[in-house]
Amino acid sequence: MFLKSLFSFSGVMVLGLAAIEATALGAQTAPATAPSAAQTAARPAAVANVAPADPFPPVNLKFFTADSPSTATVESFLHTIWGYDENRSWRIEGIQKTSSPGVSKVIVYVSEKGANARTQSTGFYVMPDGKHAIADTLVDFGAKPYAEKRKLMQDRANGPAQGAASKDLLLVEFSDLQCPHCKEAETTMTQLAKDFPSARIVHQAFPLVGVHPAAFQAAAEGMCVAKASNDAYFTYEEAVYATQEALTPEGTAKTLAAAVTKAGQDPAAMAACAATPAIKDAVNASIKLAEDAGVDQTPTISVNGRMMPASPSGMPYETLKKVVVFQAGLDGVHVDTPQPSLTTLGK
C-alpha cells in the first residue's frame, strides 16, 4: 500500500491534514553539486527520531543544496505534525534547490517502528515565505506552524463556550447544524469536555449555505439563544441535531422553534433576533473566521490552531485525544493524560 499523502490523517501511517491518496515518491534524483556552506553548517550531524535499528538510507550531504529551510526547522515541523505518534520514525534525506527561486524541496524517509516495518519516501515543497509548504495541499510550515492560527482563534473565536476561561488550551469546533457529520461529532465534543476540563471549548458556526439551506437560520437562532444564555445554547444544539432530518423547507421553522423551546427561550423572540442585521453579520463573521483559518469542511476542530477532523469517521477519538495532549505539550500547557474512554476501548 502506498504511503498516504504527507498531510493526511487516514491509514496506518497517519501523516497530516488532507485525505487525498498520493503516490510514494520512490527514489530521489538529486544534483551532484556540493552543499552550500550555510546548509552544511545548519545541518545537525544526526537527525532525531530514528529507530534504534536504523531503517533509513545513509544521509548524503550532496542532497542538501538549499540554504533554507534549515534542517532544524524541518525537524521541528515534522516533530510538530507527527510527534504524537510514538510508532513513527523519520529521517530528513534532502533539502534541495528547485528551478523556482526560493522554493525548496524537502525529502523525508518515514517508517514505523518495529519488526518488518516498511520504509517509504515522501516530499514537500517549502515556499519562499518560509511559512507555507505544499504536498497535496497548502499547509502552514515552520518550527511552530500553528502559532499564527492559534492566535487567530484566541482573538476571534467567540462562539458559545464550555470549560475553562483560560485560552491556553483552546479547542474550537467549526460546525454546521444541518451537517450529518457534525451530528456525529457531538459525542466527540462531549467527551473532550470530560477528558480535558482545563480546555476552553468553543462551538463556532460555519454554516455551509450552498449545501445546507437551513444551516444559516439554525446558526442565527443559535447565536440568539447563546446571547440569552451561553449554557442554553448546548441544549439548543443537541435538540437541533436530534431532529436534523426535519430541517426541510417546510419543517425548518417548526423544528428550530421546538429546539429553542427546549433551550428555555421564546421561539418568536429568537426568530426576531435572528432576523436582525447584527446577528446576520455575526454569523457571516464566524464564516469569515473559518475561511481565514483555511477550514474547508465541517466538522473541523482547531487544537490550539492545529486543524483536525472532528467526526469519529474522520479520526478515531483516541488519536484525537493523543494529538490534544501532544499539542498542549508543544505549547507549554500541562494537561493530565486522560485514561482510555469506555466508549472507545477496543476501537
Descriptive report:
The protein is of the alpha+beta class and 347 residues long. It folds into 2 domains: 37-143, no CATH class; 149-330, Glutaredoxin, CATH 3.40.30.10. Helix content is 35%, strand content 16%. The chain has 10 helices and 10 strands. The protein has a 5-stranded antiparallel beta sheet with strand order 1-2-3-4-5, with helices on one face. A 5-stranded mixed beta sheet has the order 6-8-7-9-10, with helices on both faces. Helix 5 (215-228) packs antiparallel against helix 6 (230-242). It is elongated.
The name CATH uses for the topology of the largest domain is: Glutaredoxin
Give the C-alpha Rg: 23 Å
Order of helices and strands: HHEEEEEHEEHEHHHHHEEH
Helix content: 25-40%
CATH level 4 superfamily of the largest domain: Glutaredoxin
Number of domains: 2
- Low-pLDDT runs of 5+ residues are 1-5, 7-34, 342-347
Average residue pLDDT: 85
| Category from helices, strands and their pairing | alpha+beta
How many strands, what sense, and barrel or not for the largest sheet?
5 strands, antiparallel
- CATH second-level architecture of the largest domain: 3-Layer(aba) Sandwich
